[in-house]
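Re: [help] complex structure
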Amino acid sequence: MKLEGIDLAIIGGGPAGMAAAIRAKESGLERVAIIERGEYLGGLLDQCIHNGFGLFYFKEDLTGPEYGARFEARIKDLGIEVLLESMVIELRPDREMVAVNRKGYFRTQPKAVVLAMGCRERARGSLAIPGTRPAGIFTAGTAQRLVNIEGYIPGKEIVILGSGDIGMIMARRLALEGAKVKAVVEKLPYTGGLIRNQVQCLADFEIPLMLSHTVTYIQGNDRIQAVEVSRVDEKGEPIPGTGKLIKCDTLFLSVGLLPENELSQMAGIELDPLTGGPLMDEYYQTNVPGIFAGGNVVQVHDLVDNVSWQAERAGEYAARFVAQGGLRKRARITLIPGRNIKSIVPQKISPKEDVEIYLRVERPEKNVRVHVPDVARKAFLVVSPSESIKIKLPAEKLKKAALEKEMVIDCLPKKGD
Amino acid sequence: MALLETEILIVGGGVLGCAIARELSRYKVDVTLIEKKPDLGWGITKANAGIVCQGKDTLEFRPEYHRSKLLWNSLPKMEPLCRELGVPFQTIGGVEACKNLEQKGKLDKLIKRTEKLGLGKDEFHWRPELLLLEPDLAPEIIGGVYDPEIAITDPIKLTIALGESARKNGVEVLLDCEVENIQKQGFEFLVRTNQGEIKTRYLVNAAGENIDKIARMVGGDDFVLFPVKGLIGILDKKLAGMVTHLIAVLPEQPGALNIISPTVNGNLLFGIPIQINRRGDYSSTKEMQEVALRNLRGIIPDISDKDVITFFSGFLMMQNFEIGWHECVVRMSSLVPGLLNASVGYPGVSAAPGVAEEVVEILKKEGVKIEPDPEFNPRIEPIPDFSALDDQAREKLIKQDPRHGHIICRCETVSEGEIVEAIKRGATTMDGVKYRTRAGMGRCQGGFCGPRVMQILARELNLPVSEIRKREAGTGLMLYESKELIKGRMAS
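Output below.
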């Protein structure tokens, strides 16, 4: 493995890693290497055989593999080095890292690093559902790989807990495979995924969506046989006596995604408890100089297009970091989530150039405007925690407003305008 | 299977059965062990907390009890045994804590008894001293006894290693072999199993949860044991350094435990509320989970429900559930000559080496010729643990077998090489691989490595993926192939 002397190491070869690598190479870096643990580039894109990718980035409706293939072709053209089935198992604050694959065990210290490890699914354990521990319980993404890449169908009577996007997409996928999807059960009074998926994956296939319900018991000693589904109150607590048994041979969990930051923590990178990802500055740099991050490792995105855009920024600044031997410290504004704002990325910005920020709201609301004091305001008919909001903050307006070191962003009802 | 003849047949491949098999393999006797599940240690043993208790932590261990003797004989043997077999063993020390002066009185009695029995000289420490050991203790804890000898091990790894060592030294081990009925024919037993008949002179019944069922088949059940279910919770590794010793608080419920302890895998475990239960019902109820969590916060308040990565339950066989009084059964049946019943209840793993020696002694008295086998080899090589090695050792391992450089389980850093080795040594299921290598045990619970382990199992065992199971028969994972469910529909 030829990892010595590389300029930029990118950990993860999914959509974020690929976009960061391309932009860094285009910005003039000599040696850019992607280290990917899987068997191919693209990360989860190859198992996402449905369409809806690239509507914004390419202005075309592509499938996951098609979207990934465009980046992969560019990576080949540019001569970016790619190491597959290679795992980074150690990362230090001085960027020294250990990668391992069948050819050996390697220590190297690249001039810069982009974290692009993406996210993982929340597992059953964190839900502590009472009952037995039978076979037949899968997270939706793992099931997606087994169905779409490996060609197996886990069962024919499916219940899905959680209405995340992958769960809804897998509901449709299994319905198309001839399985009976008996219910998608969601604890909240609204779905956890995109509205377009609620329509195209559930409503169009007449799959029942049970809002304000959760699985309260799992039955079956060997293979799962049934789940008990109960209604929940406003606090999300199951209401005793409302339990209904639904027979099934398979349970999918689509109960949330978590940025994968074990390596980041090893390197001493500070995380934002609101996003689960590293605290980012305007360069998409972490608190550890020379370590950048982009995509789902920073915050869970709902559209891959945003993953690519965000990671490109990380790649661009990483290239600049290598070329200039560091990045200039600039005046900074810390962005603080205010009314009905759950998280903001990046958390720190500079008034020197235009910035795009990503916001998530805490709860659904109608007729609101997102208000960045003296800089921007954007009106929405409806906002929802499952759809992130992107707002452009122009530099010239930021400069005027930058007297404040902290800037509180609110999502306000329109009336008080 | 044609009729198999053996001198000693052990029924049950849990920690007791395997320890007995391995002890007997030191001698020139003909021993067979049968286990109804596809792997060793999947019954009672699986839900053992892995704590090598010192037998001085509760007044229940009265010197006149058989099980106290077995345990105390066993303890000095645990560490050397684990070393021989390459099984993790860590001495962590433990605190038995109290919340009021009445409880302190009980601990004072324990300290006196410990000294009187020659088990060591323990001391009571007030809260400020305990906080130096465990800074996050609940404010209600006023003090406790510190025992530096408390240790932890991995019960399933120990059981698998005991079985492997026994097999290497000549014991025949048959898995997926379930007893259907037993007949006494003269001096011999004819044991009918799903794999055929086995004729044996001595029958060692170490069937754990089913010990009474097996004994009853031949009319040898001269004991009463109740199945008692206990619940254990596991906490995320990110809390690893938070608690570094076993901490026990006197439980309100007799027979229950109220503990938090590190595990050899770097997690924390807690529990163990108990309830009398229908056998085979391994479910965990909301009520038991809540009791476990409430007790946990009574020891370490600053732990959230969200830090629990899993709950699991298992059974113990106890003599008297209501008052928590319990004595073990390790003796020849008074009703059927040639039948030896063996069940310890709590603490099964810690007492296993002692029970195994006792069983050999009993069989000797019964007339079995016990002659040392000069070829006995106590050691087995553990499966290489990539995550625990240093740079040089890792490089060497990858050179020897490049599959060690292919990491399959990210959370626990388990390589393809380790998984292949586990399969070579007898893992045939996802859980079999998990218990041997930890693949899938981490925070993502097999989300990333699951499909890959499935493929490796299929490849190494030369089976289609649809036949790869989580555990025993009926726990298949991928029930159909793509397009299988719509075949008929497409034709019409």
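Chain A has three domains: 8-120+258-324, 123-255, 333-416.
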